[in-house]
Amino acid sequence: MSAPALPHPGCPTSAVDPFSRAFLLDPYPFHQELREAGPVVHIDAYGLWAMARHAEVAASLNDWQTFCSSAGVGLSDFRKETPWRPPSLVLEADPPLHTRTRTVLARVLSPNAIRELRAGFEREAECLVDRLVAAGQFDGIKDLAEVYPPKVFGDAVGLPAEGRENLLPYGGMAFNAFGPRNELFETAFANAAPVIGWITAMCRRDAVAADGLGARIFQAADSGELSEEEAGLLLRSFLTAGVDTTVNALGNALFCFAEHPDQWALLQANPALARNAFEEVLRFEAAVQTFFRTTTRQVEVSGTTIPEGAKVLLFLGAANRDPRAWQRPDNFDINRRVVGQMGFGTGIHGCVGQMVARLEGEIILASLARKVRRIERNGPLQRRLNNTLRGLDALPLRVTPV
Ligand code: HEM
User: Where are the domains of the chain?
Assistant: First the structure.
């Protein structure tokens, strides 16, 4: 019997389900399988195209004309399905709208604005780390990763203290919603109404402090750059993208160091490595694992023709461990030159908040490095599965003070 014709000539197909429990628990063997299958792979389960090699992921993110975001950066195609909420005016937009909104957010998060945040972020980190080191044992997720960003970023935005417990469930919903409507999605949305209600209430001018980053978005409405409603939706982008991401990244950082005591010894000996160390965490255990694009035309990528209107899944986490781009990609090495890691994306949608995230990561790691000689796991960890994010639910730790 002759072999059946390939459904997508020249393109390998894969039976891997990137949103299954097995994949999300340990994506790395699957990443390798996808990278080695070819530069573009058709994922039959969802009828989508995928790229897991660094070169193709980076090239697609840098070609917004062909790989657009306005049809959604998840599996759902906004041209065919109604999104679960009004689309983001920045993440889920193409130029010229994206250029206008991104300009405002880039100004609000300018280098000057980030510099102003440093002293407050450092004060909070010192207090938190002192308390945890004095306790000797703590949960790296519940007691550190989930405490620090809601506090410092929430304060920076100008959110009231009350209700911030809604930030993480909201992020959980938004990042699960980039995947299929599987059990993770359903669980995240089980109690959606009060969470969405609080977030919506916070996206108004009178809900946020007059001197925070949130208020600065509304200044663009005063000058006519944005409508009042657009300003509210842009504030929503901060609340969606600015908390769960950093929480998972900080948790992953603690995980990496608990698993690699030799790397902790290096950081402890030289806390100035903290910034590069956080960057290596984002490469090695990318907090944001994937984003989608949609093709605006038929396009050929490394010999494979992808039709117009196709959903394309870009594996940032797999690109970050592509041996074509990195030496010893599966080694966690805080002295590595990490330039080009895809954890913040790249191109016009490259993370607009990356300097805030880096500030948080650097400050927490440097503070721990100055005060903690040894950091060890003190019990079994629990993974938190999410259709987009990689992170933990529990990470019991024991620390030995300097
Ligand atoms: C370690 C923490 C973070 C990670 C791993 C991360 C990751 C990413 C990635 C991969 C993208 C690209 C999306 C795409 O190409 O479709 C992105 C975009 C974005 N991020 Fe972050 N992010 C983090 C922290 C933050 C923070 C703290 C903020 C807010 C201050 C933020 C706000 C945004 C926004 C608004 C976008 C959309 C930008 C655009 O479409 O032009 N992120 N982020």
Answer: 13-401
Which portions of the chain are predicted below pLDDT 50?
A: 1-5
* Dist. CA 22 → ligand 1 center (Å): 26
Closest among 241, 139, 187, 174 to 21, alpha carbons compared: 187
Query: Is any atom of ligand 1 closer than 6 Å to the C-beta of 241?
Result: yes
Spatial separation of the C-alpha atoms in residues 305 and 243, rounded to whole Å: 38
Encoding tokens for residue 77?
């195609």
Residue 349 CB less than 6 A away from ligand 1:
yes
| Protein residue with its CA nearest to atom 15 in ligand 1 | 349
The per-residue pLDDT for 7 is 64
In short, whether 293's Cβ falls inside 6 Å of ligand 1 is no
Distance separating alpha carbons of residues 161 and 371, to the nearest angstrom? 28
Q: Looking at residue 252, what is its pLDDT?
A: 98
For the CA of 293, the closest atom of ligand 1 is: 16
Q: What is the pTM of this model?
A: 0.97
> Which tokens is 278 given?
């956080």
Which residue has the least CA distance to atom 20 on ligand 1? Answer: 351
Q: Does the domain formed by 13-401 have CATH 1.10.630.10?
A: yes
Closest residue to atom 18 of ligand 1, CA basis = 351
If 0-12 CB within 10 Å is exposed, 13-18 middle and 19+ buried, where does residue 169 land?
buried
Residue 10: its pLDDT value, please? 78
Residue 6, pLDDT score: 55
Q: Ligand 1: does its nearest atom lie under 6 Å from the Cβ of 236?
A: no
Q: Is the CB of 351 within 6 Å of ligand 1? A: yes
What is the separation, in whole angstroms, between the first and last Cα of the chain?
70
Q: What one-character-per-residue DSSP string does 81-138 give?
A: S--SSSPPSSTT--TTHHHHHHHHHHHHT-HHHHHHHHHHHHHHHHHHHHHHHHHSEE
Among 100, 203, 245, 247, say which to mutate for ligand 1: greatest number of ligand atoms within 8 Å of CB: 245
Residue carrying structure tokens 């759902």: 76
- The region, left, alpha or beta by phi > 0 then psi within -120 to 50, assigned to residue 272 is alpha
